[in-house]
Write a structure and sequence with these properties.
- Strand 7 and strand 8 form a beta hairpin.
- The protein has a 14-stranded antiparallel beta barrel.
- The chain is of the alpha+beta class and 404 residues long.
Length: 404
């Protein structure tokens, strides 16, 4: 009889233990569901009793640490995760959770140290390798980041996962050289094409940049040059100021002298604005343009409107554009619709008659490797060249840039 009693008691205790184990799993599942919804306090209210009752359960401890990190209570997250991540045989999940904590808090040195601990266990973890490379880039240890990326290529014979980091490092290049050729042709009626070109060199400082540019233009038998400088100054609120000045060797193809100033600012997250002016001095006339821009940024797309107003001739022109950008590949495609005789021709000559021009243009930028860019541009114009008479005009331009 006593034997039967003990068997029944043992069976009852085993049933309770099994029930408790199932309860742990169910509670963890419910806590995960709440955490996925962003209900972190509710998830913690479910998980904390398990932490107290089963302190040896590392899955429970690790998940609790993750919840605290998602809640941005990083101090508590570190306190919960460190005991099982800092021992001789660290828990990989706890290590990964701590890596995220130190990355989110921008403690990149500690993040790298925990990445190394994790990679000692799993050297092929692309996710952790990517975080470590990102931390190295943030610390401006760019060559170490690039070396890590190259060594990691053996995992899947590709560095695609690290493309964004390579782009960030590439953008830190201080110097760039560019060359451009522009051909302007007409038809119905036609005339000899215009030829324009430039070479430029740019250098970036910590909060500013300067560009030197030599332009050359040829119309018929006449060739002239213009030398100009652009200057960019950034400010702590992420706004920046653009200034331009130039002088030429002639009086017709280019202005005798030119200057410009424009301030760009972003008071709201998705909107950019600018206000500016351009001044061009020709031998027989001076042209002052007022301009500005409003742009709406929607993810990879931006939509912009820019007007130009010719003060002395009282002429308005308008530019509408939509641009799609792939930041990781530094690739863009831009479509433009323009109306008016500003701004395109005013970049080059003193033609100021109030004649109409309708334009549609497209440009594309493609990066080859890490630092070589090609940008073809095509702009079609339906131009009123004399009152009531229209012709076709084709503007074809190619810009190549090397960053170093």
């Amino acid at each position: 009889m006593k034997y039967i009693y003990n068997c029944i008691l043992l069976l009852f205790i085993s049933s309770i233990a099994i029930g408790q184990e199932i309860n742990v799993e169910e509670t963890l599942a419910n806590a995960r569901q709440e955490a996925e919804k962003g209900n972190y306090d509710k998830a913690l209210s479910l998980i904390e009793p398990l932490r107290t009752k089963y302190p040896e359960n590392e899955d429970v401890q690790t998940f609790a640490g993750r919840i605290y990190s998602w809640k941005k209570d990083y101090k508590t997250a570190v306190k919960v995760l460190s005991p099982i991540a800092d021992r001789n045989n660290p828990n990989p999940e706890a290590l990964q959770a701590l890596i995220n904590v130190y990355f989110w808090t921008e403690d990149y040195e500690k993040c790298i140290s925990y990445c190394d601990k994790y990679l000692a266990i799993d050297p092929k973890s692309v996710e952790v390798l990517k975080i470590k490379a990102t931390c190295l880039e943030k610390l401006n240890r760019d060559q170490e980041a690039l070396d890590l990326i190259e060594k990691s290529a053996y995992i899947d014979n590709s560095t695609q996962a690290f493309r964004g980091i390579r782009t960030l490092i590439g953008r830190k290049a201080k110097n760039a050289v560019s060359a451009s050729y522009l051909n302007i042709s007409t038809s119905d009626p036609g005339q000899p094409p215009f030829h324009y070109g430039y070479v430029e060199y740019s250098h970036k400082f910590s909060k500013s940049a300067i560009v030197g540019r030599a332009n050359i233009g040829n119309i018929g038998s006449e060739t002239q040059m213009m030398f100009e400088t652009d200057f960019y100054q950034t400010f702590s609120n992420k706004s920046y100021l653009y200034a331009n000045a130039g002088v030429s060797t002639g009086e017709t193809i280019f202005p005798v002298a030119k200057a410009g100033l424009e301030y760009y600012f972003a008071p709201q997250k998705k909107f950019d604005f600018s206000l500016g002016a351009r001044f061009m001095h020709f031998d027989a006339d001076d042209i002052t343009l007022l301009t500005g821009q409003v742009a709406y940024n929607a993810g990879i797309y931006s939509f912009a409107y820019r007007p130009y107003y010719d003060v002395s001739n009282e002429l308005f022109s308008h530019v509408l554009s939509v641009q799609r950008v792939n930041e990781e590949k530094e690739r863009l495609i831009r479509l433009e619709l323009q109306y008016g005789n500003v701004p395109y021709l005013y970049l080059y000559n003193s033609f100021t008659q109030p004649l109409k021009a309708y334009r549609a243009g497209i440009q594309y930028q493609h990066r080859f490797g890490d630092s070589f860019f090609v940008r073809p541009i095509f702009l079609y114009e339906y131009e009123e060249y004399t009152p009531g008479e229209y012709r076709n005009k084709f503007n074809v331009q190619l810009i190549v840039t090397k960053r170093f």
